Amino acid sequence: MVQCSTSPCAGGSGCTYTQGYWKNHPNAWPAQNVIRGTINYTQAQLIQILNQPASGNGLVSLAHQLIAAKLDIGTGADASAVQSAVNSADILIGTLIVPPVGNGLLSPGVTSTLTNQLENYDMGVTGPGHCP
Fold it and tell me: 59 by DSSP, 3-state: which?
């Protein structure tokens, strides 16, 4: 059982966090690099992406939720409810480089189903549940 006192929980308790949590708690990340699509991003680049408004770019929205899901999985959250969506998102993203690191673009209509599946996982609607 994970208990927290004066510091926020650092994951690993088998539950999930939203992309907003990960954006604001880089010290809780289980890894300093995360592969999205076929690109290996540094933590600094991922934080830039998490701070990037989607502004109609489905790639950015998808990236936000995929980053969070991969970090959730990396801290011990059961991936069985979302692994297929993670794999499909990586395939869809492929070699596109997410803004502001790059200038990749996908229509929200192409990404919305996967984005919603990943967001539901990150928010605890599906999967192991959201961290308290």
Answer: helix
Alpha-carbon distance 7 to 70, whole Å? 22
Separation of alpha carbons 57 and 111, rounded Å: 9
Both tokens of residue 132? 């308290």
Among residues 37, 83, 30, which one has the least CA distance to residue 63? Answer: 37
Rounded Cα distance, 45 and 119, in Å: 21
Instruction: Please tell me the pTM assigned to this model.
Output: 0.89
Summarize pLDDT for 53-95 with one digit per residue, the tens: 999 999 999 999 999 999 999 999 999 999 999 999 999 999 9
Q: Are 8 and 25 in contact (CB under 8 A)?
A: yes
Cα 89 to Cα 10, 40, 116, 122, distances in angstroms: 26, 15, 11, 15
